[in-house]
Amino acid sequence: MGISRQQATTDDDAGERAERGPRARTKRLMLETATRLMQAGATPSVSEVAEAAEVSRATAYRYFPSQAALVQAVVDEGLGPILTWQSTSDDAERRVADLFDNAMPRIEAFEATFKAALKLSLDQWARRQAGTLGGEPAFTRGHRVDLLKEAIAPLKGRLPPRDFNRLAQALSLIFGVEVLIVLKDIWGLDSRGTRFVAQWAAGALVRAAVAESIDGGDGANTAAVVK
Amino acid sequence: MGISRQQATTDDDAGERAERGPRARTKRLMLETATRLMQAGATPSVSEVAEAAEVSRATAYRYFPSQAALVQAVVDEGLGPILTWQSTSDDAERRVADLFDNAMPRIEAFEATFKAALKLSLDQWARRQAGTLGGEPAFTRGHRVDLLKEAIAPLKGRLPPRDFNRLAQALSLIFGVEVLIVLKDIWGLDSRGTRFVAQWAAGALVRAAVAESIDGGDGANTAAVVK
DNA sequence: ATCAATATGATACGCGCGTCTCAAAAATTT
DNA sequence: AAATTTTTGAGACGCGCGTATCATATTGAT
Q: Each residue of B73-94: b (16+ CB within 10 Å) or e?
């Protein structure tokens, strides 16, 4: 079965990147073409990438059996630099700000890709609910969880674990593509305004978490908290 | 000719709800069937609703020309009660908390519907980027903007307009379905945990906005985001 | 009761995605 | 260089969505 052989290849390459030969070459060509198209704002189907890369549809589908696989590959490709990034500061708020400054422009650059990924996740979720398609991973917790936890790591000792997690969770609400959707598409803000609001919210949350831990427990959590 | 007549009906009904006759009856039947299916977690296509409601595909498509129209109708139907709701308090933080308490369970009850709506918006956005489909509304700013602005209305006088908007924008990041996606699907929280985190974050943001305005400008904004 | 208007249903069509088959081309081995 | 394996391309197929057409049933007015 040539098929299962080639299917396996898609996975093998994940492990051994330096693979040589026509397979790897064609795959890279497709990946680069797809990345280029997506950076231009498109959300190309496998067929469209095939045409743009000047390979046949059949070949394209051999390497990327679905648009989902394609998008995922582009996301991984484009997100690489973020994942290894480290803030130089050891102040939590500063680190979070640094993370946002680094990640948000990159997310914006790959906006179409991230939106496509979100859309596909929603698709998969819907199928899952419908009964079709069994125990797949459904929503893949991207990298945001780890990135944020790492950013607020300096608070790990100073905050109760519960509060630490709550902060990480709250921050993750203002970190992903959803921010772009809400602030740019719905509110009509520009990139600068979007980053500004996200930064402010992030800072406010970090400060709130720290402040609470200082003046003891839920000092600010009672009804209105009149300061 | 018959078509444009019936097409118009879809719009007319929005204005005159009490319409009588077979048209309204069938439409309601479909809407209720669709709502039932979606509450059960499904994201039915027009054809599926047609089958469940025991009307022909052709008829179904006359009333809801696309899945998007169907979802939109169900959203409006299910969201109605929220839109007219009013908090009895005049404390901003309390009002926001009330809003969340009221809206979040309802959003959860219609989770599949909201996710479908988000997915369709992303779809439309992608098509738009691709050049196909012209000047459509793209992302329809739902009701969240108005709801939140209304909730924090008590701060309208006490906060500079710029800060007021920033707060509304930040709050809208932790208000929609996206919250469910991030906290339930990605983090794996349950409904209670999700509401808890969202509530905490909302309160923290409101308090931060108020506190800043009190101790004058950007008293807490020093470290990050200098502008 | 009759007749026009209108709602419905059955059917067929185009289109795009993903799958499959098979033959030609390219690469690798012997 | 010849033989074999691997990669590629061309085409056909099924499927689901949305559209269009036409005949039939239902409704409402005269």
A: bbbebbbeeeeeeebebebbbb
